[in-house]
Amino acid sequence: MASVLHGWRAARVTPLGELHTPPRMTAVLLRLTVQVVLVASLWRGLYAHTGTTAGLTREQAVTYAVLAVLASRLRELDQYAGRDTVIQHMHFGTIVYWYLRPLPPQRYYALRALGEQLYGLAWALFGYAVCLAAGVVEPPRSAAVAGVFALSMLLGQWVLYYVMLLLDQLCFFTIRNNSAMLILIFAQNLMSGVYAPLWFFPDWFITLSGFLPFQATLSVPLSIYVGRIELPDAGAQLAVQAAWVLVLALVTRRVWRRAARRVISQGG
Fold first, then answer.
1. Considering only 121-135, 178-192, 247-261, which range has the smallest mean pLDDT?
2. In this structure, are residues 105 and 99 in contact, taking their beta carbons and an 8 Å threshold?
3. Are strands 52-53 and 56-57 parallel, antiparallel or unpaired?
């Protein structure tokens, strides 16, 4: 019972910071609305004089872009305001408390990320329902597509969790890594298809991204939703996503053990 209580408290750390700051929630709603409107307008404008580009119709492109914006809310909480990021804990030396709590740091990090994703999921589902009702995005073509998409999105968020964990673990081994973190986050967003579908990029870029886990986080599930990846081909993509989950889980587990040796009581 005590472990469950500690887990619940850890999971609600960052969401509570948002819920207790109404102006921050208003800003999130305003920013999400502006992003959806601008992204939908941009892609509709790009398709104003063409029917199909890179194998996508206008409706598919707009749906993909809007869903990418909504999916970005799953892990886009303002941790800096609550001084709850790993890089801040390392800077102020408070990372040592992660190793003094009843919960191991690995479990605390995982539970906190779970709480963030559930809170972000509420925002994403709300935005999806509004966009679907307004005709901004297309519904899935069938119940089977919706189910495979949901499974792929779950695996994608699992991969994203480990990718973000690796970026945070980098803080244990570098002294000044703000720029490196920004570069890596930009690369993750670019190669996962957040900014634009990967099919618009050169062949060498698509080939390169195929050897990295980034496209498994978002590009694959959204490609299934819009029909770029057909159901008969989805099984192979799901297997790749699952493989990345396994590989990254093993890597991050090893890095956690190495990171623990670098924590000292005097701070970061």
1. 178-192
2. yes
3. antiparallel
**Local confidence band at 267 (pLDDT 50, 70, 90 cut-offs):** very low
The single-letter DSSP state of residue 196 is S
CA-based nearest residue to 131, from 35, 196, 15: 35
The pair phi, psi for residue 137, each rounded to 5°, is: -120, 155
Paired with 238 in beta bridges are none
Q: Taking a C-beta distance cutoff of 8 angstroms, is the pair 59, 141 a contact?
A: no
Q: Which helix (H) or strand (E) holds 188?
A: helix 178-191
| Contact present, 209 and 191 (Cβ < 8 Å) | yes
Task: Report pTM.
Answer: 0.85
Indicate the DSSP class of residue 267. B
Residue in the block written with tokens 């993509």: 237
Question: What distance in Å separates the CA atoms of residue 164 and residue 167, rounded to the nearest whole number?
Answer: 5
- Helix, coil or strand: residue 31: helix
Angle among Cα 122, 125, 126 to the nearest 5 degrees reads 85
